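Example (one chain per record):
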Amino acid sequence: MKKFVIERNLPGAGNLTREELRDISEASNKVVFEIGNHYQWVESFVTEDKIFCVHLAESEEDIREHARKGNFPINSICEVKSTIDPLTANSPK
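Predicted structure:
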C-alpha cells in the first residue's frame, strides 16, 4: 500500500471537544471497516483550523472514497515518496 497525507480544512478544528473528536474517529473507523483490508487510517494531527491525516491505501481514489463515505473534507492529497528523521543524518553516504 501507498502512504498518503491528507489535508482537511476544518475551521475551529483545534477547539473540537473530546467527544467531537471521538465521533469523527468512530465515523472514520466505520468507513475503513467498510472499505476493507486494503485501507488503513494511521493517525491524524489536529491544528487550529486543519486536520492532517496519514492513511495507507492502494490509490488516491480509495482516499476519496473514504472521504465521500465519511463526509470528510479533502483539500489536498499527497502521496508520501519517502520519509526522513534525525537518524537519517547517520546513514552512510
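Caption: Residues 46 and 54 are 12 Å apart (CA to CA).
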